[in-house]
Amino acid sequence: MVQHPAVRQVEPVQLPQEPGEELPRFLLRDSANLATEQVIVTLPGLYMVELADGSRSISDITQSLHELTGLSVQETQTQQLLECLDQRFLLDNERARMRLAELSPRPMRHAGSGYPTSLVELEPFLDDLLAVESKTRTDTACRASILPHIDFFRGRESYRAGYQHLHGLAQADQPPTVVILGISHAYSRTPFILTKKSFDTPLGVVQTDTDLVDQLAENLPFDPYKDEYNHIGEHSVEFHAVLLKRLAPEVRIVPVLCRSFHEAIQGGFDPLQLPGVSNFLQNLTKLRSTRPDIHFMASVDLAHMGVDFGGPPLSREFLTDLERRDLETLKGVSQGKACDFFATHQADKGERNYCGTPAIHLLLSLFPEPFELQRYQQCTDPNLGSTVTVCAATLR
Q: What is the pLDDT of residue 377?
């Protein structure tokens, strides 16, 4: 084991307490799911996991645990826990990276839950989302788009509203290329995450253009592959890979995951001042200038409000006001003004929990032109417990 072990980003989920248990237990959920075996730790074990961030030795972790909790454990116990995590690929080390490399193409993670796996069911299902039979479908070129990544069932109308303007991708002389700016719902240490993996789908493999990925990775002040693990479980690229494969079977993609711009929202400054963001935008700009045929897509959702997101239950009045606020935010999209779009989030300190803010801001910075808002939609629970708002917008 390395001198300073680092646990990969995992989500601790507290388990129901059993009778007689004194300490809570936590399931360490790995969104990449590199191992099939689950790991459950007690509260002291969870402290050890959080202390193992790559900056401490086994001895340091043991000593820090004592300082934080007053608990005395042997270094051998710390070693045993970390060896257990290593066996399950939960340490960020060469062993886990080798396991990650084996997952090629990137496997389907949401087939069967997010969309049908059977082609008999899948193809008409996707054709409906693509608005294949829509009388308002257009086959003219569309340079950029903003589309949802919520599940296809709740976001159906917004998917249809956007994709009916993307059929020009299938009419091009050459197979189309789409840069997908998705969202990393798992924590990331870098502003953007790249992968060279192609994406498996029930319709066949969607090829990733590795040459273009290399171009985006050039001269960055951060390692864009540092948290490549996040691509394995993330749905914001996968959903559109499936749709695009049905729309244009020879499509090639460039998968990008964006981290939250939370610091810029709370700090009230331009997110281009965040380390590495302007560098990545420069690479995207070069790509756009040399390859005007590329379609750039932001795969995003908007507000997340209500019980499921740590807030109170909703009301009809609240939803009406939320629509007003969202449409005010989307004026920045309609006017092609990234700063105006972002200013509305700074004004309410991110209260509406937009997950799509970084990808939309990046796209508007790349294309400072008016987008046409095709659809705004609130995906609300029947009991008004929670809502997720989404939209579709396009740029010709």
A: 98
CATH 3.40.830.10 maps onto the chain at 106-395
pLDDT tens-digit readout, 150-183: 999 999 999 999 999 999 999 878 899 999 999 9
Structure token digits, residue 280: 């990545």
202 contacts: CB under 8 Å, gap ≥ 6: 108, 111, 116, 117, 118, 119, 122, 242
Q: What are the distances in angstroms from CA 94 to CA 5, 90, 107, 168, 366? A: 11, 11, 21, 43, 36
Q: What is the pTM of this model?
A: 0.94
CATH architecture for residues 106-395: 3-Layer(aba) Sandwich (3.40)
Give residue 23's pLDDT. 82
Between the alpha carbon of residue 114 and those of residues 36, 128, 151, the distances in Å are: 21, 15, 6
**Positions of the chain with pLDDT lower than 70, given as ranges:** 1
Q: Tokens for 237? A: 């690229």
325-328, long-range: CB < 8 A, 24+ apart: 325/352, 326/302, 326/352, 326/376, 326/389, 326/391, 327/376
Using one digit for the tens of pLDDT, what is the confidence trace for 321-348?
999 999 999 999 999 999 999 999 999 9
Enumerate the β-bridge partners of residue 304: 388
Residue 320 main-chain phi, psi, to 5 deg: -65, -45
* Cα distance between residue 238 and residue 244, in whole Å: 10
